[in-house]
Amino acid sequence: MSEQPQPVFIIEKIYLKDLSLEIPNSPQVFVEREQPKIDISLHNDARALEEGLYEVVVTATVTAKLKDKAVFLVEAAQAGIFQVRNFQQQDMATLLGVTCGNILFPYLRETVSSLVIRGGFPPFFLSHLSFEGLYQQYQQQQQQQQQQAGASPAP
Questions:
Q1: How many CB atoms lie within 10 A of CB 45?
Q2: Is residue 137 part of a domain?
Q3: Is the pLDDT of residue 111 over 80?
Q4: Which of 67, 58, 9, 2 is closest to 33 using CA atoms?
């Protein structure tokens, strides 16, 4: 009787893939007293490097604006290499999108916060994020797109 191989999930490496800070209207923005409007965009991506080895990247873009002036723009891409073997195919997307995202997010959060402070601004923290919720939204969008594609008449 042959046994199924045990699932393997190992964090091989966590690293900062890309980082930038722009303060296009300095030094004038430092004398402003109003609170800027903050816009946050997050993106999660995974790709296979080789059999059983994946790179996952979580990217945050944080833009602060006062009226029509940019106060600062931060973009950070936190990445990790994960060894993932012997999981069912249907579990892979959840593992890479949710589990790996949850592992990388605290590093991304600290990087963004540190960079904003080093840029001379008051502390800023990315709020906790539910990668489970994002993944469910993504699945719902995919299902809707498939339904719409199936319902549209053939040319």
A1: 14
A2: yes
A3: yes
A4: 67
